[in-house]
Amino acid sequence: MMKIALFGSTGRVGSVVLQQALAGYEVNRLVRRNSVQHGGRGKEIVGDVLNEENVMRTVEGTDVMISCLNTDKNDVLSKSMPILLKAMRYHGLKRIITCGTAGILQAREDSVLYRFQSDESKRRSTVAAEDHLRAFLMLQASEMDWTVVCPTYLPDGERLGNYRAEKDVLPEGGKSISMYDTGDFIFKQIEDDSYIRSRVGICY
Predict the structure, then answer these.
(1) Taking 70 as the threshold, does the pLDDT of residue 54 lie above it?
(2) CA 57 → CA 42, 44, 45, 61, 119, distances in Å?
(3) Domain chopping of the chain, boundaries
(4) What pLDDT is stored for residue 40 in this prediction?
(5) Architecture of domain 3-203 in CATH?
(6) Which of 28, 70, 179, 197 is a Cys-bridge partner for 12, taking CB atoms 3.0 to 4.6 Å apart?
């Protein structure tokens, strides 16, 4: 049975991934405090993603890493990525799937820009996108088989099961995608190698 190291499992998208994963996989998950989500195979480790020992314990014995960590005002994505990559190398993992943001996809109109640098993005603040970008660039420079899933506007919504995906850009006219369809798509990347070493924009 494949074993997953999951980070960010208590967030909106991460909780959807966890629900899917527990149905058929062993899941090691790192959480800041004991969660109410029990059951399934694997272990729950209480700790901090910026603590190398906690991350090493979570990754030990697993086959694939999924990170649905949220960005915050303290650059947790770019600060944790070197630790995640170090743990992957130490434990011999190659496959990592992360949840990014549509802001770090290429702009359609000017492909030298990221979306958040162009007028295609409506967000005024770029702090979150910059943290996502730094984490993405570390993955891109690594030897890992990475996929960065980049949803656009992410309401709770519902599970429609019908959405569009495109490599490195956001599908034309994409406005939103629910956290459920985003989590499902991330989970499917475990078995799908279509987007290895690329970003993938998803939307309805």
Answers:
(1) yes
(2) 12, 10, 8, 9, 43
(3) 3-203
(4) 65
(5) 3-Layer(aba) Sandwich (3.40)
(6) 179
Q: Tokens for 123? A: 């967000």
- What confidence tens digit (pLDDT) does each residue in 69-86 have? 999 889 999 999 999 999
Q: Which residue type is seen at 152?
A: T
Distance from CA of residue 174 to its chain's centroid? Answer: 19
Task: Compute the distance between CA of residue 204 and CA of residue 39 in angstroms, rounded to an integer.
Answer: 32
Compute the Cα dihedral for 150, 197, 126, 74 and give only its sign. Answer: positive
Instruction: From residue 147, give the alpha-carbon distance in Å to each of 19, 44, 45, 157.
Output: 20, 24, 25, 24
Sort 11 into a burial class: Cβ within 10 Å, 0-12 / 13-18 / 19+. middle
Cβ-count burial of 117 within 10 angstroms (0-12 exposed, 13-18 middle, 19+ buried)? middle
* Position 135 confidence tier, pLDDT thresholds 50, 70, 90: very high
